[in-house]
Specification:
This protein is 40% helix and 27% strand. It is α+β, with helices and mostly antiparallel strands and 136 residues long. β3 and β4 form a beta hairpin. The longest helix has 19 residues.
Length: 136
Amino acid sequence: MHDEFLCHVTAYGVCGGRRIGVPLGTYRAPTLALALWWLRDRACWMAERLDPLPGNPSFPSAALVPVAATVPDVPGALRAWCADGARQDRAADDLADGRLVRIAASDETTEYELLAESVDALRMQRTVPALVMPVG
């Protein structure tokens, strides 16, 4: 069982012809449950900022307008991931088995990525090359 998890949220875009990553948050979760909670919380946080719900008093009434149906729905994809219990279970299983979990959604200009990985698995990956010696 992996006991500690490193979680990241990053937005990627292109600037000057180069792909640039902008860190939006990092969390070192002491438990699997907290890692999943943080990923869900950050996905909902991003969705709310990309697509605020109508009636939000922070915005004037005419400030929010619907986008065309052809526009990728990043907020919808993030909200769907948050609400999908089966996908949450798969993410939990992957993390518990030491595998990296990546949730990503993109629109025309930006890719939004949530990552989580076991700290123990990272340590083991760094150690294995030192333990394997070429024979020859």
